[in-house]
């Protein structure tokens, strides 16, 4: 933290998988973190830390492995194609969605079959957008991205991963979608900077 400056994501030091799942369950009201030794059925085992891409399905009950997080299996597929909604967060607000697809049989792969830009209301309801906003506030995530899955059976959404090092336009995006995403990110940061400048000006007036 810097006394005279806002440091983005300073309030979000822990984005481990267990922390994210615990926090989302608390905000959403429907938990999905499990104890693998007590749970019965399929579950997802993944590394606690970002960028590992080592998620795999396991059958519970099973003994937990140190450094791994265990979550209820969220089937985000239509039986053939798996869908992942990468949601950009700026100034603790969801801004847009990159809809990523891949074969359901290879759902944990880092490689996508397609990536397309979508407006928030094309993917999420008003209530779901508000849930994502409240979750970003809970984590104090100023800038980053959520990986959101929609459960095939219940239609509920789950944030299964949080990224503080969002890389911007995915290489798989079309040129047109890249430009849409860049404009959305630019507008979001312009809002954040203008908001902070306004607060600083009001503070000077008070002083």
List the defining traits of the structure above.
3-stranded antiparallel β-sheet, 5-stranded antiparallel β-sheet, 4 helices, single chain, alpha+beta, 207 residues
Question: What are the SSEs and their pairings?
Answer:
Blueprint: H1 17-28, E1 41-47, E2 56-60, E3 68-72, E4 81-90, E5 93-103, E6 114-119, H2 120-123, H3 126-139, E7 143-150, E8 157-163, H4 175-206
Model description:
- With 207 residues, this protein is α+β, with helices and mostly antiparallel strands.
- It has four helices and eight strands.
- The strands form two sheets. The chain has a five-stranded antiparallel beta sheet with strand order 6-5-4-7-8.
- A hairpin with an 8-residue loop joins strand 1 and strand 2 (56-60).
- The longest helix is centred in the last third of the chain and has 32 residues, at 175-206.
- It starts with 16 loop residues before the first helix and ends with a helix.
């Amino acid at each position: 933290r810097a006394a005279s400056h806002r440091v983005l994501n300073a309030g979000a030091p822990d984005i481990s998988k267990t922390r994210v799942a615990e926090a989302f369950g608390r905000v959403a009201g429907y938990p999905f973190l499990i104890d693998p030794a007590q749970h019965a059925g399929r579950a997802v085992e993944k590394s606690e830390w970002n960028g590992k891409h080592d998620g795999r399905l396991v059958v519970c009950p099973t003994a937990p492995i140190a450094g791994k997080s265990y979550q209820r299996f969220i089937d985000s597929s239509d039986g053939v194609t798996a869908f992942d909604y990468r949601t950009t967060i700026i100034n603790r607000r969801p801004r847009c969605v990159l809809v990523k697809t891949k074969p359901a049989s290879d759902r944990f792969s880092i490689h996508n079959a397609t990536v397309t830009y979508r407006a928030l209301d094309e993917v999420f309801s008003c209530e779901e957008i508000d849930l994502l906003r409240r979750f970003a506030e809970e984590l104090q995530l100023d800038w980053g991205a959520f990986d959101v899955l929609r459960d095939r059976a219940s239609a509920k959404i789950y944030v299964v991963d949080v990224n503080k090092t969002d890389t911007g336009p995915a290489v798989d995006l079309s040129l047109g979608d890249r430009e849409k995403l860049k404009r959305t990110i630019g507008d979001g940061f312009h809002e954040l900077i203008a908001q902070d400048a306004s607060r600083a000006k009001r503070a000077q007036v008070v002083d």
